[in-house]
TrEMBL record:
It comes from the Eukaryota. It holds the Pfam family Dabb. SMART domains: Dabb (SM00886). This is Stress-response A/B barrel domain-containing protein. It comes from Prymnesium polylepis. Residues 104-194 form the Stress-response A/B barrel domain. Gene3D superfamilies: 3.30.70.100.
């Protein structure tokens, strides 16, 4: 669990799984981009070349054959990675071997009574992270300045591995227990499910 920041009322923004889950990938998701690939290629190629030049051409240094072999292999792998990316860069289309991964999200925001036990509500929500099929849980307090929040102060976001896992969650006893525990303190709520795709 990471602490991202805190709101003026002392509530914390919390996330599980790395990244913010929306614009940033989750910690267990690898997202391939042309910039990332170019940076990786440049780093490994430059490092290999500099080490080869430094070790092989510098007088008085005896380089074991296996070190030279490792350096040459690193350079060749870097060149191969670049070659594999050229077709992606040229037409702007993802590589054929990159699958489109969908992330199914369940969002809920609530307006709470002033006497609501925030710490207990947060703890109850975070316990949902233990459920099978839940990839990550996130929550935070409202920080919008647009004035369109309908006075909702707390938002919950769960990410699921797929539709079956969301369906199982919606009928689970753990969800029912969470909802019944916060019901006395909620004056309004809003629920929204959506899918977001990430190339990775």
């Amino acid at each position: 669990m990471q602490r991202i920041g805190s709101a003026k009322d002392g509530l914390s923004y919390l996330t599980s799984g790395g990244g913010d889950g929306l614009a940033m990938p989750l910690g267990n998701e690898d997202v391939a981009t042309p910039v990332r690939e170019a940076t990786s290629f440049t780093w490994w190629a430059a490092t290999s070349i500099v080490l080869c030049i430094g070790l092989l051409l510098h007088s008085g240094i005896d380089v074991p054959w296996f070190v030279a072999l490792i350096l040459v292999a690193e350079f060749l792998v870097s060149v191969r990675r670049l070659g594999g990316q050229l077709s992606w860069w040229s037409d702007g289309q993802p590589r054929k071997n990159v699958e489109q991964r969908q992330r199914l999200r369940h969002f809920m925001s609530v307006r709470l009574h002033p006497d609501a036990p925030i710490d207990e509500i947060v703890a109850a929500f975070l316990s949902l992270d233990q459920l099978e099929g839940v990839k990550s849980v996130e929550l935070g307090t409202n920080c919008s300045r647009e004035g369109k929040s309908r006075e909702h102060m707390l938002g919950f976001l769960l990410t699921f591995k797929g539709r079956q896992q969301l369906k199982a969650f919606l009928t689970s006893s753990e969800r029912a227990a969470f909802l019944s525990s916060i019901e006395p303190y909620v004056s309004d709520d809003f629920v929204f499910d959506f899918e977001s795709g990430v190339v990775g």
